[in-house]
Specification:
alpha+beta, Arc Repressor Mutant, subunit A, four-stranded antiparallel sheet, about 50% helix, elongated
Length: about 230
């Protein structure tokens, strides 16, 4: 979802709002404010307030739709709500298992005889595409420090938690942590390919990613070509 997941989680703290969300999510049809209010024993206005908050944080979507038995042009068209279809998962520190899962699933399905190599290639493709998507934030002709700052922002947005350490930038969090513990060589190879290609997609000329496994951080770290921060 486009809004921060913390906002969606915070929206579900209220017990009435959470009950309304669960009710709408479990229905096989769009739910009106009146139906939701009756189901939870609250006023229509209170239901409308909470339902619209759930739309605001991306957990529900809404539209105006006339009931099938209402003659066209007769009466007000009610607002109806449905689940957005987005999953909500929150981990601290952040994990991205859906990303590596998609890469591995596509590799196994499309090239089962060389799935490991194919996964690394697909990781590079996903990383490059992500870098290209946000490349507009990198000023033309940026110096090494400027490129490194943009690269760190891009990776922080994916949960890598960059931190300068001397001439390098250590990625303190591995978004694929549990899988890396099970299949370190494969997952670290995927991770390195993804980060390296993301830098290429960003258009960075001075920043490189290298494998530097350590027990308390991601296996990849960044450095500038000339060794400066």
């Amino acid at each position: 979802m486009s809004r921060p997941r913390w906002e969606a989680v915070g929206a579900l703290v209220d017990s009435v709002r959470r009950a309304l969300f669960d009710y709408v999510r479990r229905q096989d049809h769009p739910v009106t404010r009146e139906e939701a209010a009756d189901a939870q024993g609250v006023s229509r206005n209170l239901a409308a307030f909470h339902l619209d908050k759930l739309v605001e944080v991306g957990l529900l979507r809404a539209r105006y739709e006339s009931p099938a038995d209402q003659p066209r042009g007769r009466g007000r068209t009610p607002k109806v709500y449905q689940a957005s279809g987005d999953d909500l998962a929150l981990t601290v520190p952040e994990r991205r298992y859906e990303l590596v899962g998609e890469i591995l699933a596509d590799a196994v399905a499309e090239e089962p005889t060389r799935a490991g190599e194919a996964a690394v290639e697909r990781a590079a493709g996903r990383g490059w595409a992500h870098g290209q998507h946000i490349a507009g934030h990198l000023p033309p002709g940026a110096d090494p420090a400027g490129e490194l700052a943009v690269a760190c922002l891009a990776l922080d947005g994916l949960g890598f938690e960059s931190r300068p350490e001397g001439a390098a930038v250590v990625l303190r969090n591995c978004p694929f942590h549990d899988l890396a513990q099970r299949q370190r060589q494969l997952v670290c190879g995927i991770n390195h390919a993804f980060v390296s290609a993301l830098l290429t997609g960003l258009g960075t000329a001075h920043v490189t990613a290298r494998l530097e496994p350590r027990p308390d951080a991601c296996c990849v770290e960044l450095s500038t070509v000339d060794g400066e921060e």
